[in-house]
């Protein structure tokens, strides 16, 4: 049986979700393959340009809407509260859906209003003075429309989370953040648990994503001997152990793949590790953050979190 977790809304979220960032042209097939293999949770975002592909794949799969959990994310150019309802509608149209299960603020930074996804001046992102608290309040209002079942955030610092909880009325259902055995953030994980906020791990394979360039010097996280060794006991790979590490903590994980054999293998990362093995993995936390866009996005992110250089 596939593992699921309960959100603070009462809805169930599957532990393994299918990531759809990059390889946009391959995504319709990949998502269809994933749904056929048994994935019931799909993660997309306006900025990925994959919502149409996800929508097509869902339609082709024939799986009833209520059996799927679909997340999408509000991009930085649509943070103005007046823009939020239409941004959601645009995503719904591309996804060919009447509602999404989870709508997230993708990054806590607002860019110039308009349709340009990456507005730039002199090679720098054009930032607008729009408070993410106001953006979130606009998302709260969407809940009563039925077009969004739950709301949450991604890439927030601890201070940003605390402010959100203090100044808004709906506790985020989920926080999607970078986490893997080389960036464990145990205190932050514990904090979310204490507030009833579900944590979802993106880039669960650490530096396996080719855009995270450090791999030449430090090797691949999924080949870390501790993960590989533990895997031997369960007849699993290092990659599958990395997914199980997240799930054993009660978090969801979002592996991405366009390769059928890996799509299948990653679903089989849904199993539980023993306390002893969790302890062993505790020892390999390198506090390495691979996705920090602070230099390009016009804001310093993650300032109070592990892995900030
Ligand atoms: N909220 C955010 O800001 C944010 C940021 C980053 C990611 N995300 C979400 O999280 C998802 C996953 O993160 P990610 O795409 O950065 O990285 P990832 O899932 O950790 O890694 C993906 C890479 O690993 C390869 N791969 C997949 N399964 C493998 C396996 N079993 N063994 C070896 N290699 C494997 C894939 O190759 P192939 O595809 O070629 O098989 C791809 O190159 C994204 O797709 C997106 O939905 C969200």
From TrEMBL:
GO terms, molecular function: oxidoreductase activity
Q: Which SUPFAM superfamilies match?
A: NAD(P)-linked oxidoreductase
Catalytic site = 48 (proton donor)
Q: Which UniProt keywords are listed? A: Carbohydrate metabolism, NAD, Oxidoreductase, Xylose metabolism
Residue numbers marked as site, Lowers pKa of active site Tyr: 73
Q: What is its EC number?
A: 1.1.1.307
Tagged with keyword NAD: yes
Quickly give the catalysed reaction.
xylitol + NAD(+) = D-xylose + NADH + H(+); xylitol + NADP(+) = D-xylose + NADPH + H(+)
UniProt protein name: D-xylose reductase [NAD(P)H]
